[in-house]
Description:
Blueprint: E1 4-9, H1 21-24, H2 29-43, E2 46-51, H3 55-67, E3 72-76, H4 85-92, E4 98-102, E5 124-127, H5 132-142
Parallel strand pairs: 1-2, 1-3, 3-4, 4-5
Helix pairs in contact: 2-5, 3-4
Bound molecules: ligand CA2.
The site of ligand CA2 has 16 residues, from loops.
Amino acid sequence: MSNAVYVLNGPNLNLLGTREPEIYGTTTLDDIGALLTERAAELGLTIEMRQSNHEGLLVDWIQEAGAAGAKAVLLNAGAFTHTSVALHDAIKSVKGPVIEVHLSNPHAREDFRHKSYVGMAAKATIAGFGARSYVLALDAAATL
Ligand code: CA2
């Protein structure tokens, strides 16, 4: 098994910190990457941080993480969380732990965010802590 933790981010998360700060905060995805890299070093892990607006690319990266024997995958699939059977199936194909991560708490939001195809396949979900959700997920992954 490798020491790499894949942190995969889905559609529109490239806009983090620039729009809708009342929901998603002012921290950018690059800031989150820096926080994770710092914490990972303390844990003896490395971070492979990626973002795509394309569902198939996220599927490719989940498969890549599985093939590379990644320590864990932290996945914030954005809106694909609530629609993607393809991501669900990709997560199921990975041996190591996949942890669903969200900045907001989707259950406290619109009904259409209450169903998660990602969460139904993932080992666990951490949501609602803003940027800290990612760090909490990394700490949890390190204990697995
Ligand atoms: O809370 C989360 O992390 C979400 O995955 C964010 C998704 C949303 O569709 C999920 O229901 C919950 C949306 C990501 C869009 O991010 C933006 C960031 C800044 C400005 C606009 C969108």
